[in-house]
Amino acid sequence: MIAGMNSSVIETLSLFAIHAGVAGASDRIAAIPAASGHGKTTLTAALVGSGFEYLSDEALVFSDTGTVLPYPKPFALSKWSAKKLGITPQGEETLSTASDLGSTVGSGGELTDLVLSEFGHSDVKLDPLPRSQAVAALIQYSFNHYKDPARAFRIATEVARDLNVWRLEYDDPIEAAGLISDTLV
Fold first, then answer.
1. Domain that holds residue 162
2. Pairing of the two strands 164-170 and 67-69
3. pTM above the 0.85 mark?
4. 48 has pLDDT over 80
5. What is the CATH classification number for the domain harbouring 45?
6. Are 59 and 77 in contact (CB under 8 A)?
């Protein structure tokens, strides 16, 4: 229900928005684009729990100049995710905030890293990818690129120009968050 409401709201934005979790640490902002149900909320919550600031677990929102704007909302964690993160589940879906995880909401800035995650691997690995993968992922997971395709493509290519792009293979979100933190911060 919450995901549906958020999708409806985000689709009405005039800003370019991608379905992604977003967290920042030091001078780095990392986004994890993914479809619903592919672990981005759990992984973002694990990053926030490991010291990253929270920007969103739902939408990577860009201004026209490519600046990341926060879209914070409560994390809607499944029972499995809540348990994995050390939170007592409150039914099938547990709402949790950045402060519940010991962090704060960040103010945004420049996207520095794009993490393309693949859940279901027994070994955790974070490998670099070519920047060309970023444009495809930003458009693929966009909520609203169809409203102004030329603008969306311009923002995606400008943002991708300086990005570090990574493929993350993982099974344990806590272990994956630790590897991301060790690599990026």
1. 2-184
2. unpaired
3. yes
4. yes
5. 3.40.50
6. no
